[in-house]
Description:
Elements lengths: L8 H12 L1 H26 L15 E4 L4 E3 L7 E7 L4 H16 L4 E7 L4 H11 L4 E4 L15 E5 L5 E6 L4 H14 L1
Parallel strand pairs: 3-4, 4-5
Antiparallel strand pairs: 1-2, 1-5, 3-6, 6-7
Amino acid sequence: MSEPSSEAERPRAGWRAWWRSAPVRRARAVAYWAAMAALVVAVVRRYVPDYDLPDLGPAPALEYAALDGGTARLGDAAGEVVVVNVWATWCPPCVVETPGFVDLAEEFEGDVRFFGVSVDEDVEAVRAFVERHGVPYRVLVGPNRAGPPLAAPVLPTTVVIDRRGRVRMRHEGLLLEPALRPVLRTLVREG
């Protein structure tokens, strides 16, 4: 390292030497790995559902127009495990999780009923999305006729309801198939 050429560069040279010193390098490494660990914890908490499945209260009253015609009511699924997914065609995480929901709906056919609640205003865009992704479950559109809309401050939001009509899981954000499958297996086994 060359000698600083001016008085102004001397403090910077001292700072650089301090920054490159072994104790500071070790402290930076520890801080880096602590930040990485905090990031991993945050990601896991955000994307992995609560597998304890606590009772979060009664299922909300839902009644929507169904994309395939008629009306769909959550009450019609009484005694079944139900997954309600609030989503939109323009929501990237919603698009990412849709194939997994399609696979799970087919895997758990007869044991779990799926509903997709679209917040889109353009029903034709919803119809095109459903056809493109081969969504086998009922997709609901428009306002909730039975009360306030299902609270979904984040898209997507997924609510899982047990056979007794109790909300057992509420997940805001991307929910992938491998994370939801054990929840559904547990609730189906509860009988």
